[in-house]
Amino acid sequence: MIRTILILLGITILIAVAFGLAGDAGQASLIWFNYRIDTSAAAAVCILGFLALCAVCFWNLALWLSRSPQRAERARAETRRRQGEEVLTRGFMAVAAGDGAEARRNAAKALDLSDNVLLVRVLTAMSAEVSGDATATRAAYTAMLNVPELKLAGLKGLVQLAQSQADRAEAVKLAGEAYNQPRPAMWAFETLFEARLEAGEWSEALSLIDGALTRKLISPIFSERAKASLMAASAAALEETDETQALDYAVRAAKLQPQFTPAAIIASRLLLKTGKPGRAEDVLEAAWAAAPHPALWLAYRDLVSDETPRERARRLQGLLDRNDSHRESRILRVEQAVLGAGKADIAAAMTALEPDTADDIVTKRVCAAMARGSQGLQDLDAARTWVAQAALARSEPEWSDIDAEGRAFAYGAQDWSNLILTFAGKAVLPHPRFERGEKGLPELPELASRYVPSMPFIKAARSQPHAVPQPDDPGAFDAAITGQDLDAEEPAEALPKRKPVRRARAPKAVK
Q1: Residue 341 backbone zone (phi > 0: left; psi -120 to 50: alpha; other: beta)
Q2: Taking a C-beta distance cutoff of 8 angstroms, is the pair 161, 138 a contact?
C-alpha cells in the first residue's frame, strides 16, 4: 500500500514539474452540477493526482479492514505452530537427556499444539521407551505401523523392545517383516543375519547374503567375505557327515577369500583325505601368499609324513617363496634352517629375525624360534636365555587358534558365529581361544634345565639320601665327568652298592 502511494505521488510531482517547465500549459474547465471551475492545466493535474491518491488509500484501507479476521487467524496459527515446535524440541531434548517424565509431558502437549503428526508419534513412542513403560512403548510403536511413513520406525522399536525382553522369536519375526518391505533398512538385515548365525543356520545365512546383495543392502566385498566364512563354517559342520559337500564348500571358500585361513585349513585337510596332496599344497600356498598364519605352515608341513628332515626343509621353501618378507616367513625360515641342520643357514635365519626381538614387539614364538636356532647351533646357554626371556614375552593370538591336540580352528557354533561376523565386517580373524585363555600347543622347545655335570649328584640325593658320594670315592658317579646318559632317571637299585665309610674315632682320654 505504501509503495502504491509513493508511486502515485511521484508521478503526480513529475507531471506538475513538466507542466511548469513547459510554460503556459493552458486552462482547464470543469462543469459539475451547474458549477463551473476554471483553473490552470498544471493545477488540474495536481488535483487529479491527489484525488487518485485518496481513492487508492481508501481502497487499501477497506481491503485491510475486510481481511483482518484472516490476519488474526494466521497469527494465531503461527503462534500455535511456534509453540508446537518448541514443545517438540523440548521433548526430543528430554529424550536425549534420558528424562522420561519430562519427555512424556512434552509429548502430551505436542498432541494439542503440533500439527506434525509424524513427529508427535515418534516423540510419544520414544518418551514412553525412555521412561521404561513397556506397555505404553509397545502401544506407541504398534500405532506407528498404521502410518506408511512410520512403519519401519515402528517395527524397529518393536524389535528393540522384544530384544530387551529376550523374546528372540518375536524379534526375528518383526525383523523379517521389516526386511520384506519395499525399501528395507540395514538394521533388519543385520538382525536376521545375526539370528541365523547364532542359531548355526549357515545355509539360511548364505541365502540371506545373496538377497541382501541383490537389494544393495551390503557391498560386494562384504558379501564375498561373508560367503567365504559361511561356506567354511558349513564345511566344518559337514566334515564328518557329508565329506563331498564339505570339500566343495571349503574349496570354494578358500578360492573366494584366500586370506580366510580356516577355509584353507579345512580345504587342505579334506583334499589330503581324498588323495589330492598337490591341490592341498596349492591351497595352502595361496593362503600363505594372502595372509600367513602359523596354522598354515603346520598343515603344509604335515602334508607329507614319509620324508627326511632335509627333504621337509626343501619342501617348506615352496611356502616361503610365496611371501618371503612377512614376519611369519622369517619365523618359518628359522624352523626350516633347523630342519636342514646347516649352521650357516641357521645363523642367517636368526639374523633376519633379530628385528622382531626388540623388547616392545618380541613374543613367545619369536623367543622360541631363536631358542631352537641356538639349540641348532649347539649354543645351549643362548637357548636357555631365550627360553627365560619368553617367560616375560607376550603370547601371540594367532598361535591360540591351534588347540593342545594340534587341531586348527576346532571351533563350536558360537565361535564360528563370532568369526563370521568379525571377518565379514572387518576382514580380520578373531581369536576366541586366546580371549578365553585356553591352552594350546606348547610355544617353547624342551631344553635341559640344568647343566650336565650336576645331574647325577642331584638324582642320587633324591633316590639315596644316605649315599652321598665322597670326594675321594666317586664310585658310580664317574659318569658326571665323562658326560654319559645323565638325564635318564635310574632306579636306586641300578646304582652300585658301596661299603659304608667309617668315621675315625677320637682317642680316649688317659685316666
Answers
A1: left
A2: yes
User: Phi, psi at residue 37, to the nearest 5°?
Assistant: -120, 125
The Cα 271–Cα 253 span in angstroms is 14
For position 44, what pLDDT does the model report? 73
Long-range contacts, 383-390 (Cβ 8 Å, 24+): 383/445, 383/447, 384/447, 384/449, 387/444, 387/445, 387/447, 389/362, 390/364, 390/443, 390/444
Query: For 471-480, how does the pLDDT look when each residue is reduced to its tens digit (9 = 90+)?
Result: 444 444 444 4
Burial class (CB in 10 A: 0-12, 13-18, 19+), 116: middle
CA dihedral sign, ordered 471, 475, 477, 479 = positive
Tell me, yes or no, if the pTM score tops 0.85.
no
Is the CB of residue 374 less than 8 Å from the CB of residue 386?
Answer: yes
CB atoms near residue 442 (< 10 Å): 11
Composition of the chain by helix, strand, coil, percent to 5: 70, 5, 30
Q: Which residue has the higher pLDDT, 449 or 139?
A: 139
Instruction: Work out the end-to-end distance of the chain between its first and last CA atoms, rounded to an integer number of angstroms.
Output: 155
Q: Where are the domains of the chain?
A: 2-66, 452-490
Instruction: Kindly report, residue by residue over 69-83, the tens digit of the pLDDT.
Output: 887 888 777 888 888
Percent of the chain with pLDDT over 90: 59
What size, in residues, is the chain? 511
Is the CB of residue 294 less than 8 Å from the CB of residue 302? Answer: no
In terms of C-beta density within 10 A (0-12 exposed, 13-18 middle, 19 or more buried), how is residue 151 classed? middle
Per-residue pLDDT, 4: 66
Three-state DSSP class for 455? helix
29 pLDDT exceeds 70? Answer: yes
158-190 pLDDT, tens digit per residue, is 999 999 999 999 999 999 999 999 888 999 999
The type of residue at 456 is P
Q: Collapsing DSSP states into helix, strand and coil, what is residue 26? A: coil
Q: Please say if the pLDDT value at position 281 is more than 80.
A: yes
C-alpha triplet 355, 361, 367: angle, nearest 5°: 75
CB atoms within 10 A of CB 486: 21
Band the pLDDT of 320: cuts 50, 70, 90. very high
Whether 187 and 156 have beta carbons less than 8 Å apart is answered as yes
d(CA 266, CA 243): 11
How far apart CA 350 and CA 195 sit, in angstroms, is 48
